[in-house]
Amino acid sequence: MPATDPDAPLPPLSLTVPEPEVRPGGQPDFSHVVIPRAGTVRRPEVDADPEAIRDLAFTIIRVLNREGEAVGPWAEALDQTPEDLLTGLRHMMTLRIYDARMLNAQRQQKTSFYMQHLGEEAISCGFQRALAPGDMNFPTYRQAGLLIAAGYPVSLMMNQVFGNAEDPMRGRQLPVMYSSKEHGFFTISGNLATQYIQAVGWAMASAISGDRRIAAAWIGDGSTAESDFHAALVFASTYKAPVVLNVVNNQWAISTFQGIARGGSGTFAARGLGFGIPSLRVDGNDYLAVMAVARWAAERARRNLGPTMIEYVTYRAGGHSTSDDPSAYRPAEESNAWPLGDPILRLKNHLIALGVWSDERHAQTEAEILATITAEQKRAEAIGTLHHGQHPSHADMFRDVYAEMPPHLLKQRHEAGF
Amino acid sequence: MARMTMIEAIRDALDVAMGQDPGVVVFGEDVGYFGGVFRCTAGLQAKYGKTRCFDTPINESGIVGAGIGMAAYGLKPVVEIQFADYVYPAYDQIVSEAARLRYRSAGQFTCPMVIRMPTGGGIFGGQTHSQSPEALFTHVTGLKTVVPSNPQDAKGLLLSAIADPDPVIFLEPKRLYNGPFDGHHDRPVAPWKTHELAEVPEGVHTVPLGRAALRRAGQAVTVLTYGTMVHVALAATAESGVDAEVIDLRTLLPLDMETIVTSVRKTGRCMVLHEATLTSGFGAELAALVQAECFWHLEAPIRRVTGWDTPYPHTHEWSYFPGPARVAEALRQLVEVD
Question: Pfam families recorded for this chain (chain B) (predicted)?
């Protein structure tokens, strides 16, 4: 081998810009997504040394196998009844049907904007089952399942989306930016990642106060690149805040594939390891796995063991929002090629395998939910939609800027004629 | 009553608030064990424990973001940004979050938080320890912005800010921490102990937000100012021989329009004076409000005296700072306009 000439110039530098495996026109390929068989990933004790469970940030915890059976240690740790699971199935079906109706309403110009959950229903619906009254979610715009699973009325969600006279947000917020303190659902910002550190602060406050409540932070794969994600991890780690740090990796941040935010790190869950935060990676399309991992993390928080990071591996089957057309940047068939399947179908098959469900009952339930939601929608539309019917008073535009309206704002309100 | 420096007055206010309400928590960079780089929180951790007063990672967005979460929970965070110049990483949290929680959640979630930060120049701090960013906050609806000019007000305004149900930006002119600085940088440093406004009432003492204070009554011209420049204005008034009425605004938002309008209608002339840069500064808002409310009483154009539109320089500090000579000259010119 010839010796390298130490004086020879190095080749010029070149910039690396990661690219997804395929673009429109290409053949969808998820062969790079390594998927362990269901039931094969161990379940450590919640007080396990974080250093001893670093491997869980690089695998995928799965419970439901291809036959619809719940298998392995994470399944064994769950103590839910078939009725609990039927409730979970109902939550997911409700969310999907609600989404379809609202998406359609947006196309009919009854509202300006909508964001659906298609393919991601198990994550928010399943996670909420691990929380108790008084706990607080700091959600993004794709976790409405938290509200549905917490029993928030769909009619109020619709009123918000339509910005009508019964909108709890008084016509101030973009559609889907819900808020319900009573249901443990913090007001959605729309700015990304800001709520992540707020969840940590809320959890710190609970600990400072000697309370028993815990917080859950939510973020998408793309927004983990924001500085506030780092802020949240360092604060959560330093103060051992009772918080669950959720990362929903749905592969796409609008048109940007997850590799742009992830960089050279193997997984998003691995981000937590540098902070000494136990970090798990879970099949986000597996309702039971989501619930099992959420309970593990919530228990850690409640036992004052500190934060847990969870990466949900899933796929955003729909567009980012109604303003987005995914066919411009990814193959249209990619959604069907996603190897983790559909969360509703998988839970349905499990319930059928348990002998407590059937295709007929499923179809019947679907029809019932659709009828209920359609009826609610009619009621909501009768109150008003974005451009028709009754809306909150324009005087509401000036309220709640401050607890007490300062003179300059009062003057402007009078000038505006409200 | 006790004579205090502004640092002691701020610490006293925090002590009173923490003693009164177990929900008051104080945190920031170097704030806990050490008691802050300006010593405003000295002794609080020892007295109230480290879950009520603690050090944070160097992450301003984290400090404010965590504070917002705590405020939404029901605590009363009083956070310190080590220098106002360091607040920018937290700006998104302040503008998009703290200022809007109440509005966007229709009152479900609120943010009763105080964000304290040393502001202004006069200490040879260069561009990263001297800025006056108040206009960046007064422009954001949902926030209140406060700038005390003396120990008595510092305590009273801080206690009002902590009691306030909404987020308050509390800017502490750092050159005033240890004495009333009138801009004569070449003279011996004056201590607070001989100043009457260093008399700070013990225990609970509040100064309401939104009320200005008349520091000198006069007939010839109204000077609208706040923070360090209050003392500069008083010195310049004495040195110029112009009978100026000096108004210390104390709270920039909400603004005490009644005091301002009454004074300008009386004097017919108005100077707006601040350390911050000129363009789109808070002085522009003051000038606009004064012309709208007092146009037919004005005998001369409103005059703005401010820092120059340059980054805050180091060596050139005293050429940048709107000191008493510049203010006095402007006062003389202002009263000469027919």
Answer: Transket_pyr (PF02779), Transketolase_C (PF02780)
Q: Are residues B46 and B191 in the same domain?
A: yes
Rounded-to-integer distance, Cα B268 and Cα B145, Å = 27
Do B72 and A206 lie within an 8 Å CB cutoff? no
pLDDT at A1: 56
| Cross-chain residue pair A191–B101, CB shorter than 8 Å | no
- Nearest chain A alpha carbon to B77: A205
**Cα-Cα-Cα-Cα dihedral of A126, A131, A134, A137, to 10°?**
-50
- Determine whether the interchain pair A194/B97 forms a contact, defined as Cβ–Cβ distance below 8 Å: yes
pLDDT of A4 above 80: no
Handedness of CA B117, B121, B123, B129 (dihedral sign): positive
Model pLDDT for residues A175-188, shown as the tens digit of each residue:
999 999 999 999 99
Q: How confident is the model at residue A5 (pLDDT cuts 50, 70, 90)?
A: confident
Partners of B61 on chain A (C-beta within 8 Å) are 197, 227-228, 231
pLDDT at residue B22 greater than cutoff 90: yes
Burial label for B102, CB within 10 Å (0-12, 13-18, 19+), is buried
- Is pLDDT at B61 greater than 80 in this prediction? yes
Q: Confirm whether A43 is domain-assigned.
A: no
% of chain B surpassing 90 pLDDT: 99
Q: Is B129 a catalytic residue?
A: yes
Nearest to A208 among B51, B68, B72 (CB): B51
CA distance A129 to chain B (A): 22
How close is the nearest chain A Cα to the Cα of B257, in Å? 9
Residue A103 contacts residue A322 (beta carbons within 8 Å): yes
What is the phi/psi pair of residue B71, to 5°?
A: -65, -40
Q: Among candidates A74, A78, A89, which has minimal Cα distance to A36? A: A74
> How high is the pLDDT of residue A2?
60
Give me the percent of chain A exceeding a pLDDT of 70. Answer: 99
Q: How many domains does chain B have?
A: 2
Domain containing B245 — which CATH number? 3.40.50.920
- Same domain, yes or no, for B38 and B114? yes
What's the confidence (pLDDT) of residue A74? 98
Q: A414 vs chain B: nearest CA distance in angstroms?
A: 17
Cβ contact, residue pair A200, B72, below 8 Å: no
Q: Let me know whether B26 and B170 are in one domain.
A: yes
Where in the sequence is the domain holding B92, given as residue range(s)? 2-200
